[in-house]
Automatic annotation (TrEMBL):
<protein>
    <submittedName>
        <fullName>Alpha/beta fold hydrolase</fullName>
    </submittedName>
</protein>
<dbReference type="InterPro" id="IPR051044">
    <property type="entry name" value="MAG_DAG_Lipase"/>
</dbReference>
<dbReference type="InterPro" id="IPR022742">
    <property type="entry name" value="Hydrolase_4"/>
</dbReference>
<dbReference type="GO" id="GO:0016787">
    <property type="term" value="F:hydrolase activity"/>
</dbReference>
<feature type="domain" description="Serine aminopeptidase S33">
    <location>
        <begin position="51"/>
        <end position="304"/>
    </location>
</feature>
<dbReference type="InterPro" id="IPR029058">
    <property type="entry name" value="AB_hydrolase_fold"/>
</dbReference>
<dbReference type="Pfam" id="PF12146">
    <property type="entry name" value="Hydrolase_4"/>
</dbReference>
<keyword id="KW-0378">Hydrolase</keyword>
Amino acid sequence: MSAWQLQAQFSEQNLLQRQQELRQFWRSGHHQHFAAKDGTQLACSQFIQPNARADLVISPGRIEAAEKYMESCFDLYKAGFNLHLPDHRGQGRSARLCADPHLGYVADFDDYVQDLELFIQSKVRPLVRGPLLALGHSMGSAILCRYLQSTAQHGIQGAVFCSPMFGLPMASLPEPVALWLCKALRWWQGTPQYFPGQKPYRPVPFADNHLCQSQGRYQWFRDLYQQQPELQLGGVSSHWLVQALLACRQIQQAPPLRLPQLILQAGADDVVANPAQNLYVARQPGARLLRIDRAKHELFLETDSIRAELYQQLQLFWQQLGI
């Protein structure tokens, strides 16, 4: 086993000052578009180096573009990984699916899953020379999990799910009732529209955010989306919510996965339902749950101390796989 260290190359204090270095790294990657099975144009980013330790597919969360992972990709690349990131349909630099580009929508959650399968088969596998790993965040974890559950010969040796969307907080409503209400609202609206309370993109002040506790990294993320408004995405549609709830149900009801899994739970997360993560792990013999008590939803945008704990656990998990 080769010795390597996954560690932060930037701090909360110097991240904004070292933008040129970070953006130069991002420009060095291979960024392209490819067509999904239904013709939707999908964006992806890849970073390839000689003698990589392993290849890592990163499945981003909702509203996220690959660029949002710029800092962590820099760290992972320095630690010896090849990196492969798709922009899910309807967000990032991939084609938007509604006249309102800020409306969170997908016709069928399985479209995300099929896109990821196509990305791995057509863009990732031709470049893989060693172990293949996968990591998902939030909605991206749900997409990755459904891909693994529905693909017999996926070839992925280990999966990490960060703040996974394995269930959604629905104001204490039982899941069947919440799903029925969302379906009824979707029918009443007729065409894709925002779920009540959801709105187009707006930059939430740091003091009001539910994502992270690092003001520097939060400001970096908001600056990125302000400078590149084509990356902005707003709230979800009622139809997206129906599809997400159905996907969470499928995740919980599917047979256990036969590969090592690490579930990283953010203890202060109110974006996804942590009890659903506990339920998932209880049914997965090959899964281990690690709770980071003080962390909010966006583990990769958190404070230096939380990210250090995150990186330590990632490194330990991959080392246990012999990588």
